[in-house]
Amino acid sequence: MRPQSRPLTKCTILLFCLMTGTFARTLEELIIELKDKTESLQVKKQTQFIPLLSWQKDKGVYGSEVKLNFHGSSHLAFVRDEFSVFDNNMFVTAWVTSCLLEAYRYGGGPKPSRSHIELSLNSINQYRNKNRKYENSIMSFWPQVYNKTTSTYISTPANLLKLFDETDGLPVKTIEDILKLFGFNDIGKLIERLLGEKPMFRSAFHIPPDFDDTFVNIGLGALLTDVKADFDTEQQSWMNSNTNLTSVFDALKKYAYRPFSNDSNINTIDPRSYYYLSTFLEEVLSDATDLALTPTWISNIDETSNMRSKGVSMPFNINNVDVTVSSNVIYGITSSILTGLVPVSTLDDSDIQQIYLNTTNMVAYQLRTDFHQRRDLALTYYPSVFELYWFVARTVFLLNEKSKYSKLPHQDLETVLATLEPVLETHVTSKILTQAKPEGSNMLYFDDFLGDRDYDDNNHTLVKGDDRIFTTAMAVNTLISTWSIFDDKSSKLFWKKDVTLNVKDVISKCVNWLVKYTLSDDFKPWNCFFSGSGKGIDSMPFFFPINRLEFLNGTKITDYNHFPHGAPYIIGFKGVVPKSSYDNMVQNETHFGRKTTTTFSGYNSGSGYFPFWSSEPYTYATSMLALSQFNNIVKDDIKTNLIG
Ligand SMILES: *[C@@H]1O[C@H](CO)[C@@H](O)[C@H](O)[C@H]1NC(C)=O
Ligand SMILES: *[C@@H]1O[C@H](CO)[C@@H](O)[C@H](O)[C@H]1NC(C)=O
Ligand SMILES: *[C@@H]1O[C@H](CO)[C@@H](O)[C@H](O)[C@H]1NC(C)=O
Ligand SMILES: *[C@@H]1O[C@H](CO)[C@@H](O)[C@H](O)[C@H]1NC(C)=O
Ligand SMILES: *[C@@H]1O[C@H](CO)[C@@H](O)[C@H](O)[C@H]1NC(C)=O
Ligand SMILES: *[C@@H]1O[C@H](CO)[C@@H](O)[C@H](O)[C@H]1NC(C)=O
Ligand SMILES: *[C@@H]1O[C@H](CO)[C@@H](O)[C@H](O)[C@H]1NC(C)=O
Questions:
Q1: Model-level pTM greater than 0.90?
Q2: Which of 103, 502, 612, 638 has the most CB atoms less than 10 A away?
Q3: How much is the mean pLDDT over the chain?
């Protein structure tokens, strides 16, 4: 920290006190308002799907909406604004609950009400994998519903499926003609296109459980354990529902992606994952070492072959590696060990140790190298890069807290801290700081992409900042988690010794912006926390180098130029090839007639669109966490000045 160059005059000190005095009250009031607002958005009472009238809303869920990222003309912006399907999933409920608990623990924020936590935990319990006939903590994004015909529990996004069923009988042509009459030609075409893609979306819903939701649930259990003194019943209730955490670690070992293995079930990956991972893998190859990374799906090729006809299969029948999922797995392992949910000896299992450390190295590498210029592939399902930054920073934050007064209980934890902390302090911090945008002289904000590519009648680009609140809050959360340490004894946050004035300045200016705008109605409280893996033609798996193409029954397909048909197939990259061979495939080969796209031109590029998930309670909870953590930082420099 740089020493303050000039002592403040008495007058400025007085003024400053007055300002911070008023400011602090407003900030605290806003934090309480945000907590109430967030909790009010939890579904208290189950509702049923009634076409055009109401969505199915499951009791206990913090909701999100499935939307379509159209952009451009006012018509397309209208569709983006208005199209929204309520979704029930585990991810949002778990994250909103975590933010509320963290704001309380790390930010001295208002205590979340027990009834709300209990509702969340009961809801999350509905997402446990029911296809395993033993106690398990293997979780899925959507609830599973039993299908009598196939005797299998199938992942079921109720509203999306019912909406699709409703549109089956729609007179599409008539609707299109009517829209044309009113001058909405583009919307008519769009509806036709959307309905045409229905079968593709429908089959993408039948997903297996995933390591993301699974480890987010474990992270929540660890957090509850940390605040057990205040949430004894709730912690006990989580423990009672998660009696076999071994099931998670067993699954991690079984399904890990092992490119150097001879087991064809797990040595092949989605060609998009291989593409962004290639330089990392090539480095590993030159060391001739072994590698095991956490994948997204708790499934493999054999299981998908066997279960596909029963309604459970990985998208494109192949697993992938997602940097955001990976960072949640790292947090889940770290926090469950630090809070004693699982024994420290878990890390003495060499396989778990390898997955934990290899995955950490991979995440650090991707952050350092900006995802091989393909953020859209690396953040496979989670477009918000600020969300990823925070997910990673939370791990470092927790490790710093737990090592303040005692040694970390395992060498691997030290290694993870030493690997991730420098990347956050250098590369990620400077990435964030350079993207800050000023408003006036005492406010800063961050934009990601939602609503930033429409144009008006004069063809001027409109920057609407639909994800500005969320992105600004996530930037603050990342910077605070990176640059401060929570002191368990005083329950306060302290800046690290080497935090720069610039970092502190950006944080407080963002807080000013959040105070003014989080509840002001000037901006949409939207985010893009989740999405389908394809963001347009340039991120479809078919158009990247592959070396394995076969029908699910194992029969090889040799034609790499025409799409196979007649039966489901897998398209993947097997093993690891030397850099020269891969570069040749990237530069000189076409894949089903297309050259490899090596750059990503943004989520709003071209005329494409993709489905995404936005959650208002998640935005409010994120902002509440940012504000309360800021409020709980001991402002040591100000104190020094006042005393000195
Ligand atoms: C159950 O599975 C069968 C076979 O996949 C499918 O045809 C049927 O629509 C499913 N039933 C329900 C209620 O989803
Ligand atoms: C715990 O999970 C493992 C699979 O990982 C399973 O073999 C075992 O039976 C489960 N234990 C109980 C008590 O259900
Ligand atoms: C894979 O198979 C080859 C040849 O059979 C063998 O040399 C190698 O050790 C095997 N690798 C692993 C990881 O089992
Ligand atoms: C992966 O883990 C193996 C076994 O622990 C180790 O030898 C190797 O260096 C690790 N590689 C990376 C890139 O983390
Ligand atoms: C609108 O502006 C974009 C660049 O911002 C340009 O590419 C496009 O041709 C313009 N369209 C019209 C109709 O002028
Ligand atoms: C596998 O499926 C393909 C496509 O349906 C078919 O042509 C082939 O004969 C099948 N092979 C076996 C061994 O069943
Ligand atoms: C692509 O092909 C050309 C011509 O055969 C060759 O000279 C070049 O080295 C190839 N590129 C790579 C990366 O292998």
A1: yes
A2: 103
A3: 92
